[in-house]
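Q: what sequence does this backbone want?
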């Protein structure tokens, strides 16, 4: 008995408190509205004479767009895209008014009758069941008042500011702002996002049942979630529908139909990196570092996630699909992963990139942040440096291996052997040495040209990091990224005109005005004749050298690369239209790929196959174009090269290089059938020197272990 009495007593006291509080609020506000100056005597914080600040722009989502204007991803802190009131379904407007403020068009910001009605309902329930706040008051609470506590002073301030808002803005403006401000649950802010998430439609297409459900969510987005709490959601929706009938906007038949419509059972998420996640992450990283979007990181974050930007990118969905298919079908599953990036030679636009098999399990971007030894792909850079410094592709060099070089009194000798332990092919031209990837031929060439000149031209052509001017640079001993290697080879394809990689072409603000645009003019970094001669030599790599698996039946230039102990494998190549770099290795460590799919991985195996598979798909409908041929009369008379330099006396070359594709070589779709290379058996000369390559730039994701300059005798293929 006493327990029952105590429960009733508590209910009575709660009802009394609710009644007293609401009554006091009504009395205070009535006094404030009738005698404005007296309100300032009650609380200075809610002075009637307060100037209403202008309603600030709402946070709105930014869109990342592909090169065709399709939505690639949505960036936001609040998923909101404001709409004009004219683009909102009339049913939704009626439903919101029925649910939240039936006297909206009659009151001036504070509804005495609505407050009294809520007071009576709350008294009967013994708790706060209805707030009594008008739409204008709710707008004030959500945009102008930061006080979280539901105090009398705050409610007074709401009422006064609501009155001032009504004086400054029209009813239509207030309602439009309110509908774009409120939260509907499941991450949806404003009516447009709510219509998209719950019904996969637009705000102007909402029907009666859909509108009533959204209106019911305003008071309790979580408690009336149609997915988590369908019974509560259905009851609240049907109450709103009944209220619309009481307002005279629905017939009995419409009520019956609407109340029996099923609730939504799934949420439609906004476009967020369904494909190309690595690409979107790189766009985000670049924008957060771009001071054109703000002087501080905080300003840039607000602009990106709340500024309603339209971020136009170079991303090509079709080429991305081809890249993912090529990787999926030509790289065995397992611990070793591929990285692949495609550039447009004419602009430097990054069209597609794959930095692993699954962004959810590996966020580290191997294409832009991965720093790995490029192996013999760097021989192409040495060849270009030689051409730029007065050498001829017909110059002869001793390719016999192994070979040893005296590095002076204060350094250990440099010992080099071919990656397969072979003895090489005797004296060859530079073009032949490149096609057959002869280590000793290029070791002697780099000594003749100068490692500093190779490092310099590599950085001019696209390497962003510092490179040590050491002879082993020619064998790819220093780490670079796949994007840097693609840029180098794209520079060759573009006649020596370097286009820095472009991800973002234009950023527009919420009004469609350009914040910035990216110029793609390019910079001439090497002579066109140097680029054409190097391209001629790289065509021979595919026609009759280590890159045979990349032959696709049209002009192709490229180079294979395999680092020490098969830890990194590359193929970087180009056509006149596109350049692509393919890398394969372990994403987090230097692990030997000695038995992957039954083979020792080299650049001429899986990377070349991935490259060829992509290019066949990407260029299927493109015209077959030839590279511009070099002018042989511009070459100096051929002579002999040793580590001491280039001799002046000309010699007769063993043969003339081919300047056109070798039509006797059929396109290859499978890797060469030669036996895997033998492990090298280095001689017993003095100990080989090793140096540490520059560490990768700091990133938000821990990079793989630092790359070291490997002993030359086992580097490159």
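A:
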């Amino acid at each position: 008995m006493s327990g029952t009495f105590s429960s009733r007593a508590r209910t009575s006291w709660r009802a009394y408190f609710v009644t007293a509080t609401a009554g006091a609020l009504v009395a205070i506000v009535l006094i404030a509205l009738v005698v404005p100056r007296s309100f300032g005597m009650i609380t200075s914080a809610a002075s009637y004479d307060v100037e209403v600040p202008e309603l600030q722009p709402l946070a709105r989502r930014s869109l990342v767009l592909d090169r065709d204007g399709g939505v690639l991803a949505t960036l936001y802190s609040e998923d909101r895209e404001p709409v004009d009131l004219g683009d909102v379904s009339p049913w939704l407007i009626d439903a919101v008014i029925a649910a939240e403020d039936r006297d909206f068009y009659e009151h001036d910001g504070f509804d005495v009758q609505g407050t009294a009605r809520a007071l009576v309902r709350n008294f009967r329930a013994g708790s706060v069941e209805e707030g009594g706040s008008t739409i204008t008051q709710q707008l004030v609470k959500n945009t102008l008042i930061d006080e979280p506590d539901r105090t009398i002073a705050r409610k007074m301030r709401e009422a006064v500011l609501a009155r001032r808002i009504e004086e400054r803005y029209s009813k239509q403006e207030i309602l439009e702002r309110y509908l774009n401000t409120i939260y509907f649950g499941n991450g949806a802010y404003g009516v447009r996002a709510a219509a998209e998430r719950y019904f996969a439609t637009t705000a102007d297409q909402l029907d009666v049942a859909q509108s009533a459900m959204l209106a019911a969510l305003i008071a309790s987005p979580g408690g009336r979630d149609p997915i988590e709490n369908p019974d509560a959601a259905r009851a609240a929706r049907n109450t709103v529908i009944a209220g619309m009938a009481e307002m005279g906007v629905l017939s009995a038949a419409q009520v019956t139909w609407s109340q029996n419509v099923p609730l939504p059972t799934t949420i439609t998420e906004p476009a967020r990196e369904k494909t190309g996640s690595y690409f979107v992450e790189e766009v985000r990283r670049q924008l957060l570092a771009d001071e054109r979007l703000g002087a501080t990181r905080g300003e840039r974050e607000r602009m990106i996630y709340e500024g309603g930007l339209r971020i136009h990118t170079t991303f090509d969905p079709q080429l991305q699909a081809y890249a993912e298919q090529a990787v999926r079908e030509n790289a065995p599953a397992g611990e070793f992963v591929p990285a692949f990036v495609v550039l447009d030679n004419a602009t430097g636009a990054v069209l597609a990139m794959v930095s692993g098999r699954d962004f959810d399990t590996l966020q580290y971007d191997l294409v832009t942040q991965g720093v790995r030894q490029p192996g013999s792909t760097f021989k192409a850079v040495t060849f270009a440096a030689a051409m730029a410094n007065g050498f001829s592709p017909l110059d002869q060099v001793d390719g016999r291996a192994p070979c040893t070089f005296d590095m002076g009194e204060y350094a250990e000798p440099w010992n080099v052997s071919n990656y397969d332990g072979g003895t090489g092919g005797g004296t060859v031209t530079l073009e032949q040495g490149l096609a057959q990837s002869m280590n000793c031929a290029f070791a002697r060439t780099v000594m003749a040209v100068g490692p500093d000149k190779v490092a310099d031209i590599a950085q001019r052509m696209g390497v962003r990091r510092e490179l040590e001017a050491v002879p082993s640079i020619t064998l790819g001993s220093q780490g670079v990224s796949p994007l840097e290697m693609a840029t180098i080879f794209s520079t060759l394809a573009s006649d020596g005109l370097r286009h820095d990689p472009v991800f973002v072409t234009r950023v527009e603000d919420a009004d469609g005005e350009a914040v910035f645009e990216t110029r793609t003019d390019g910079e001439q970094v090497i002579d066109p004749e140097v680029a054409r001669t190097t391209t001629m030599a790289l065509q021979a790599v595919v026609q009759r050298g280590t890159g045979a698996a990349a032959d696709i039946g049209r002009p192709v230039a490229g180079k294979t690369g395999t680092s020490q102990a098969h830890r990194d494998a590359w193929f970087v190549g180009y056509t006149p239209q596109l350049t692509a770099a393919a890398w394969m290795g372990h994403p987090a460590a230097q692990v030997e790929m000695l038995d992957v799919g039954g083979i020792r991985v080299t650049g001429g195996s899986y990377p070349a196959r991935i490259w060829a598979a992509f290019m066949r798909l990407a260029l299927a409908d493109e015209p077959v174009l030839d590279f511009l041929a070099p002018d042989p009369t511009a070459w100096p008379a051929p002579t002999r090269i040793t580590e001491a330099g280039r001799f002046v006396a000309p010699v007769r070359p063993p043969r003339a290089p081919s300047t056109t594709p070798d039509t006797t070589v059929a396109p290859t779709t499978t890797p060469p059938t030669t036996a895997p290379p033998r492990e090298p058996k280095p001689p017993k000369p003095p100990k080989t020197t090793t140096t540490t390559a520059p560490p990768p730039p700091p990133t938000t994701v821990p990079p793989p272990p630092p790359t070291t300059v490997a002993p030359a005798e086992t580097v490159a293929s």
